[in-house]
Specification:
The complex is a heterodimer of chains A (113) and B (113). Chain A has no helices and eleven strands. In chain A, strand 9 and strand 10 form a beta hairpin. In chain B, strands 2, 4, 5, 9, 10 and 11 form a six-stranded mixed β-sheet that branches. Classes of the chains: A mainly beta (113), B mainly beta (113). Chains A and B meet through strand 10 of A and strand 4, strand 5, strand 9 and strand 10 of B.
Amino acid sequence: ETGVTQTPRHLVMGMTNKKSLKCEQHLGHNAMYWYKQSAKKPLELMFVYNFKEQTENNSVPSRFSPECPNSSHLFLHLHTLQPEDSALYLCASSYGGGEGGYTFGSGTRLTVV
Amino acid sequence: GESVGLHLPTLSVQEGDNSIINCAYSNSASDYFIWYKQESGKGPQFIIDIRSNMDKRQGQRVTVLLNKTVKHLSLQIAATQPGDSAVYFCAETLNSGYSTLTFGKGTMLLVSP
């Protein structure tokens, strides 16, 4: 275990469904991140939160809605997704930047049908 | 925008060989670099980092080399083992790590017994 836990590990949803991804970190970090990992593409940054405040939204479609109730928890709410949104969604945390890099969870494998 | 890229998408080696994975970065202002390893079904895991005021850093069986003149980063793995089989990413950032990381596409390392 890395100290960053993501649930569920796998998710299959229809295009009209609403679901949420959850991330929890037990490392005392103050920054949390959502990344999208698709085949043959670099990791794509989606959202950044520092001390519960969103500090970066990387032009993500509104069908992805993040929520950060505290520095230890991060959610990604999903609704009316498209098949091209199928990917591995990774959560990460860090000490507000990069020293030592980010600690990643194992990801949620999302399939939109 | 600026991006980080990898020269070789797949590297196949024999167990016991030394492996070298290369990375080219394009942002000359980047001052902190990290190598990550991602095994199947897991999130990226921090391996080693290096700051721009260094040109070499060694860890356990791994060495990172930084050539700022040509904006090149490499990861050397000594005595490669089957457990080293994974995708390796380089990542760069600014401001000594206080900006978000930019990841390269990754290189798949395959180690044959």
